[in-house]
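It is worth pausing here to work through a concrete case rather than discussing structure prediction in the abstract. The textbook approach is simple: state the sequence, then state the predicted structure, then interpret. We follow exactly that order.
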Amino acid sequence: MDFQRDGILPDEVVLQILARLPIKSLFRSKTVCKLWCRLSSDKYFVQLYNQLSSKNPMLLVEVSESPQLKSSLICVDNRLGVSEFSLNFLKDRVRIRASCNGLLCCSSIPDKGVYYVCNPMTGDYKILPRSRERPVTRFHPDGEAALVGLACNLSTQKFNVVLAGHHRTFGHRPDGTFVCLVFDSESNKWRKFVSFQDDQFMFSQMNKNQVVFVNKALHWLTGSSSSCVLALDLDADVWRRMSLPDQVSEGSGNRLYLSELDGCLSVIQISDTWMNIWGLESYEKEEWSLVDRVSLRCIRGLVPGIFPICQSGEFVFLATHKHVLLYHRKSRVWKEMYSVKNSSTLPLWFSAHAFRGTILSCR
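Step two, the predicted structure:
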């Protein structure tokens, strides 16, 4: 694209400036000229914009008084503060099941088995074709898959949706058969593979939202007594167990959370007084290093109900029952970014997701 005019900034400088705008501001700038109008469909600019946005994780939370009532969507940004938007463009009442690189995977509440992938910043969305594998919707008491994952590759702009859970015959306990359905946006089809897993292949409720996509795989933290990371290789359709740092342990007030840190897998350990942040230095060798150690004494009263949601090299977003907190690593300063006043509101950590503002298309 040619932006060069007499007395005007060079093309690359203009692109760098526009690529740092919030998405709403970027779309408003389309009216400036025809060249700017075509930016959101220009491959180079889309990649530039998404690469820059990947360095600024945000926290997305559904605020609702109950699962039956309509919820509002709050986005908390370190740079821009708090903004509110909705998923009304889906024309359905939905629940957010997973988030990855600016896309959301949502399931229909009234129509079980219907899934959407959408970009809430642009209003773009796709209804996923129904899978013929009906048993996948009977894994979980609420009629949905026990695990839902979304993997979105920024470079190829392709995505996968994963629905997984233990096979359970009506009236019987799970038989150890773990069924996994994977939707591929490129082929617009589902594929299925089955594996056998032991009783430790379980997940606690608080870890379901914290599925992390790095290194072409989705990762969950198990909720069993001997915690480990379970990774699903989307190229090979193979599950892999990954060990946690040797110094990490559950029990005695310690809680573990899975996150992403600058494109790498990270584990956050919270005790009564400390938050330890670990990063995976070598994916193949499973070598971890301690990235940061943060004192929690100044927020002592909130520690029992605090959940880390997302992080960067600069800050960590955490949610409690009613607050969203931001911890700045360099200054060691805590800041309250958002709070709810209604006493009946569901806990914010219950529906909080890591998020990024990208201009990826779902189609």
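Step three, interpretation. Residues 1-7, 135-142 have pLDDT under 50 and may be disordered. The first helix runs from residue 11 to 18.
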